[in-house]
């Protein structure tokens, strides 16, 4: 199962690697991504089942397909290159676009609503929580004072006025990350899918998660750590009372990161961390 199909690059690799008998359930909430994946995966015919659905619908999808379990699950989290590079989707401040940022265009919440309608305190909270933005309050105040904020470049300029450049990244990077996470409820989805994924795997099956920022990676890391232990009682407790049993083993304790060559070929891979766990 590829829960984040995108343009179908990973899915094509999975299908090629499981030739001739492997079947793949691929999901994405973005119809544009799904159209690209359909084209890319057409050569695999009936071996690929593609669905416009959130990956958190995995249990329902398995029932619909009549599959008891799957042998592998891949989640390549975040936005795709196609989404970043399509100005009308509003993910990038490098080109102007509407404040949209929805993976799923049927999602009723857009970045424009958050930026132009949410109270200052709530805005500051998401910038701090999802962007780890130390200047969250200052930025929220500046956004409120600039309302209505029309597009991505206006928003980036508002942030740049109150937050000076630190290091190589544009000062609006964390604000854009925070808005995208909030619009798409990304962290909630990750928290929800991890136990569902482990439940859906056949023994010996593997769950691979690629994350692009520390908030996501932390959720995956902590989940893998906890679920690979037989006891999760506080360390000082002399006798185990939790009755917890490990359901997975971590394939490597450290995340797998891209090589220099891969980063040279694809600079967006720079911050990727891959964690893999195997169902016991
Ligand atoms: C980083 S891209 C995946 C790229 C893909 N691995 C490829 O090879 O092209 C992430 C994709 O996940 C999708 N996505 C994000 N959250 C999702 C969710 N909760 N359910 C399903 N798809 C989701 C996005 O729309 C985006 O297309």
Topology:
Blueprint: H1 9-17, E1 24-28, H2 31-41, E2 48-52, H3 58-65, E3 70-76, H4 81-85, H5 111-117, H6 120-131, H7 136-146, H8 152-162, H9 173-183, H10 186-200, E4 201-211, H11 214-227, E5 248-250, H12 260-265, E6 273-279
Parallel strand pairs: 1-2, 3-4
Antiparallel strand pairs: 4-6, 5-6
Helix pairs in contact: 6-7, 6-9, 7-8, 10-11
This protein binds S-adenosylmethionine (SAM).
**Residues in helix, %:** 40-55%
Q: Which CATH first-tier class of the largest domain would you pick?
A: Alpha Beta
What is the CATH topology of the largest domain?
Rossmann fold
The residue-averaged pLDDT reads 96
Determine the structural class based on helices, strands and strand pairing.
Answer: alpha/beta
Morphology: globular
What does the radius of gyration come to?
20 Å
Could you give me the name of the CATH homologous superfamily of the largest domain?
Vaccinia Virus protein VP39
Amino-to-carboxy terminus distance? 18 Å
* Level-2 CATH architecture of the largest domain: 3-Layer(aba) Sandwich
Could you describe the 3D structure shown?
The chain has 280 residues and is of the alpha/beta class. It is built from twelve helices and six strands. It has helices at 9-17, 31-41, 58-65, 81-85, 111-117, 120-131, 136-146, 152-162, 173-183, 186-200, 214-227, 260-265, and strands at residues 24-28, 48-52, 70-76, 201-211, 248-250, 273-279. It has a four-stranded mixed β-sheet. The radius of gyration is 20 Å and the shape is globular. It starts with 8 loop residues before the first helix and ends with a strand. The mean pLDDT is 96.
């Amino acid at each position: 199962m590829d829960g984040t199909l995108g343009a179908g690059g990973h899915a094509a690799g999975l299908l090629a690697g499981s030739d001739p008998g492997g079947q793949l359930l691929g999901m994405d909430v973005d119809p544009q991504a799904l159209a690209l994946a359909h084209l890319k995966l057409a050569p695999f015919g009936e071996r690929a089942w593609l669905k416009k659905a959130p990956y958190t619908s995995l249990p329902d999808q398995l029932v619909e397909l009549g599959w008891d379990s799957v042998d592998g699950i891949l989640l390549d989290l975040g936005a795709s290159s196609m989404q970043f590079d399509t100005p009308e989707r509003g993910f990038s401040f490098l080109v102007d676009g509407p404040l949209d940022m929805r993976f799923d265009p049927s999602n009723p919440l857009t970045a424009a609503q958050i930026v132009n309608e949410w109270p200052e305190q709530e805005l500051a909270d998401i910038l701090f929580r999802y962007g780890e933005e130390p200047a969250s309050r200052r930025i929220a105040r500046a956004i409120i004072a600039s309302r209505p904020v029309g597009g991505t470049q206006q928003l980036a300029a508002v942030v740049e006025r109150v937050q000076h450049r630190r290091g190589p990244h544009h000062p609006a990077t964390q604000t854009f990350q925070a808005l995208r996470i909030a619009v798409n409820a990304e962290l909630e989805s990750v928290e929800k899918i991890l136990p569902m994924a482990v439940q859906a795997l056949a023994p010996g099956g593997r769950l691979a998660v690629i994350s692009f920022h520390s908030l996501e990676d932390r959720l995956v890391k902590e989940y893998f750590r906890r679920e690979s232990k037989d006891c999760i009682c506080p360390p000082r407790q002399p006798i185990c009372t939790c009755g917890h049993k490990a359901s997975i083993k971590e394939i490597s304790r450290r995340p797998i990161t891209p090589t220099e060559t891969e980063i040279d070929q694809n600079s967006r891979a720079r911050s990727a961390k891959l964690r893999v766990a195997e169902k016991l």
